[in-house]
Amino acid sequence: MSLLLESIKQSKPYLYKAFSSIEDGEQHLHNIIELDRYWERLKQPVQKVILPSGDLPKDVVISGEYDLIYAGGTLSLLHAAVMAGKYGRKVMIFDRKTPAKSTRDWNISRKELLNLSAIGLFTESEIDSVIVRQYKNGWVEFYQPDGSQKRLVMDSVLDCAVDADKLLGLAKKKVQAASGSTIIAGSNFLCCYQFDNHIVVKIEDHQGKKFYYRAKVLVDVMGILSPIAMQLNEGSPQTHVCPTVGTIASGFDDIDFETGEILATTGPAETAPGKGRQLIWEGFPAEGEKYITYLFFYDEADSPNDKSLLALFETYFRILPEYKKPGNVFMIHRPVYGIIPAYCHDGFDRTREIADDHIILFGDAASLGSPLTFCGFGSMVRNLYHLTGDLDRALSDNNLSKKHLEKISAYEPNVASMANLMKYMCFNAATDDPNFVNDLMNEVMIVLDDLPLHYRQAMFRDEMKIEELAIIMLRLGWRYPKVLMATWEKLGVQGSLGFLKNIVGWAFSPVR
Ligand SMILES: Cc1cc2nc3c(=O)[nH]c(=O)nc-3n(C[C@H](O)[C@H](O)[C@H](O)COP(=O)(O)OP(=O)(O)OC[C@H]3O[C@@H](n4cnc5c(N)ncnc54)[C@H](O)[C@@H]3O)c2cc1C
Prior knowledge:
Bound molecules: flavin-adenine dinucleotide
Helix content: 25-40%
Structural class: alpha/beta
Shape: globular
Strand content: 15-25%
Radius of gyration: 23 Å
Number of helices: 17
Largest sheet: 9 strands, mixed
Distance between the termini: 56 Å
């Protein structure tokens, strides 16, 4: 038995038992501990990883030269495959682990996935080959003690389970097939040096050997742990977070394989000191007999609550039977986990830093996706067309300064405005009744249930129009005036002004 697993035997008995039974349990535990370092990093002085050209040692050997170097090998593969395949750019991707291997799976609708064939990345049959299951419909439901909760049913929302590694594997093959492009595993980003007309990236392999590469642009796709995002945003790269854990497992009793459970709560918030959180479940049928369950909560990045994935996993395994009952042949195939990032912009437009000279951030490193239902994968699928086309144009025109690159972003004014709604779902033990989040969200479900189907689909697919949100908010305020008091408590003056600015920015945006 491994030492790392043994070290949690007493403190996390449920997690210990579950991870002892799975393949690579030790490696997953290691990954989780690595992700949990995020919480310590938020408190530490910001490490400088973007350095001036003068700091580059004079005698370095440049091992290769590329148009684009991608640090991080997950969503980067989709972008890089288009840049290499469609635009003929010479790209390099490196990852400190194995590129194209994710610690999560994705849900999306088929219509949205078809964006990837519309831009020529995959054929329709390739897209269908990564959809491991499609459901009839899905629902959202928030606990009411008297059982009166409204179950909001919808179709064509998050109704396809995608095998993330298979999808990324297809993109990886396309990058490898492009002449001059390279993918490197097991290499850690250390820092980069900005020159007037290029950037030099320093990486280190598992043996500690350092290498230097030159590129026109460094694309930072290192996810929530990105040290570049940390430096550019002065140590506060996220305003909110959504720690998420779960499993892909089989052998539950009574599973409905035709329906996705998009959001579900089974009780009020936990109110213990340092643990004020409303836990939320998701349940999605996957390939064959497999079923994915997630447990997560929304919180402010700097709240005093324990947000560690390790502690959340212990809770997950302890309370899983309250949500889905493991049967006699229950088996965990793989754990899934991560910290989903969120950023509330205090302005009429994007306020988060997502670029610098010869540097651009995509995916979770840019933190522009909505944490409400869709996250970074959905955001990348929706925005890939212009994120690739615009970057190719910038390369051709040699417009690679911060001023130009920061215009190439997945910022969507509707998503930015909707992200404010997440603040209502961050439970605060000091001000909220234990069932506060459930009561409010149950009212939102009742309002949506009274409106045409399109409203709920738009809300849960990040496609909301401003007039639709206005109707929902007016109806909610009329039905449930407590939301006004909640706005005061949750958002305060600063937050309410920020929300208003987002809405005004949305109203005047060309993409309403
Ligand atoms: C459990 C779970 C379920 C999800 N489900 C959905 C969903 O259904 N739909 C949806 O739209 N989104 C979903 N998301 C969100 C989605 O998975 C993320 O937005 C997406 O994975 C972000 O991809 P990324 O490439 O930006 O970052 P990541 O996936 O975090 O990848 C970052 C990569 O960078 C590498 N890296 C980090 N630091 C370094 C370094 N110093 N040097 C080299 N490499 C480095 C890492 O090893 C990693 O491979 C889910 C997230 C979780 C946690």
